[in-house]
Amino acid sequence: AADTVKRVHQELGGKSANILFPDVDLQRAVTKGVAGCFGNSGQSCNAPTRMFVPRDRHDEAAGYARTAAEKLTVGPADAPGTKLGPVVSQLQFDKIQDLIQSGIDEGATLIAGGPGRPAELNRGYYVRPTVFANVTHDMRIAREEIFGPVLSIMPYDTVEQAIELANDTVFGLASYIQAKDIEKARQAAARMRSGNVYINYPTWDAGLPFGGYKQSGNGREYAEYGLEDFLEIKGIAGYAAAE
User: Fold this and answer.
1) Is residue 102 a part of any domain in this protein?
2) Which of the four pLDDT bands, split at 50, 70 and 90, describes residue 240?
3) Is residue 45 annotated as part of the catalytic site, yes or no?
4) 41 Rama class: left (phi>0) / alpha (psi -120 to 50) / beta
5) Residue 187 resides in a domain
6) For position 73, which CATH number holds?
7) d(CA 127, CA 90)
8) What range defines the domain where residue 54 resides?
């Protein structure tokens, strides 16, 4: 790109936060959050991989997440009932395994999945749907992009604290807010340092510009913003009619 001065648009990684407000239907919010995190075997740059839940409901949320994860069948894409296929390569499989082990070593509570392949699969890049609870902000699984089916549940004491921790990352691709009070959700969305914010699991909207802040990239896809990246701007001075 440098040799020919091409314009570069980078859509990079993410470590998206999913903040569950105290007023939500917790079972529904957690279950949909697990599905969002594990879609495409976790290989989505905007996957909601950090789930922030009220501390006094942490264990309840962990239980819902375990139930949701254990219902997911891992296997070949053409096998009946498969929900999660393999990850893309040996390199990626090994990276995910290393990060799962780091979560165990650093003291997170493993509540579903874990290292290795599912018991019924003896080969292939298959990863067990993994959920950690009691994850703290300094752990690798809370800070590094895993790009696999691994969810970190992080307790918070106040929504203010959750927003602060959610934004304390080198990434800034997406954020997720779940709240019954839509006005509070909008206020929180305005404070998220990410290129996209999704309130209450909306349907995908191709009219919404997509792209990141910070180390999640630059430029935007979709809507008129995606088209404008292919245009050059021309400024003409002295264009007014001659005297």
Assistant:
1) yes
2) confident
3) yes
4) left
5) yes
6) 3.40.309.10
7) 11
8) 10-228
| pTM, entire model | 0.94
Domain assignment present for 235: no
Taking only the tens place, the pLDDT of each residue in 124-148 is 999 999 999 999 999 999 999 999 9
How many CB atoms lie under 10 A from the CB of residue 3?
5
Q: Please check whether residue 63 lies inside any domain of the structure.
A: yes
Q: Among residues 11, 37, 144, 145, which one is catalytic?
A: 11
Mean pLDDT (whole number) for 102-120: 97
Q: Determine which one of 37, 45, 144, 145 is catalytic.
A: 45
What's the domain count of the chain? 1
At 1-60, the pLDDT tens digits run 899 998 888 889 999 999 999 999 999 999 999 999 999 999 999 999 999 999 999 999
